[in-house]
Design a protein that fits this description.
nucleus, Dros_DevTransReg, SKP1/BTB/POZ_sf, 3-stranded mixed sheet, BTB/POZ_dom, BTB domain-containing protein, single chain
Length: 112
């Protein structure tokens, strides 16, 4: 089922939220974002909208793309030097599975 959502997201099908971050536009599914992040879930519950547009002013496009990859596939490739900032954004957005320090991440995490 996760692969199905990721495929739909990549193809822009049945998406119901638009995210603007770092000058780029990302399409996603509220359901996936809500399951992966209490932050997004709260936004969608407190401000119901058929197709909300979220402006993430403090998130760069690389971080947003990586977070979406992780939420849809459970994997993300992040350059080692970018990891601390990436994890700060993940923590601020409460992305499940990406909280904590580098040392607390699963051993299978790969760096690029």
């Amino acid at each position: 089922m996760c692969k199905g959502f990721h495929s739909l997201q990549r193809d822009g099908q049945m998406v119901d939220v638009t995210i603007a971050a770092g000058g780029k536009i990302f399409k996603a599914h509220k359901l996936v974002l809500s399951v992966c992040s209490p932050y997004f879930q709260k936004i969608f519950l407190e401000h119901p909208s058929q197709h909300p547009i979220l402006f993430m002013t403090d998130v760069n496009s690389h971080h947003m793309a990586g977070l979406l990859d992780f939420m849809y596939s459970g994997q993300v490739n992040v350059k080692y030097e970018d990891l601390p900032n990436f994890l700060k954004v993940a923590e601020a957005l409460q992305v499940k599975g990406l909280h904590g320090e580098v040392g607390s991440l699963p051993a299978r995490t790969r760096w690029r």
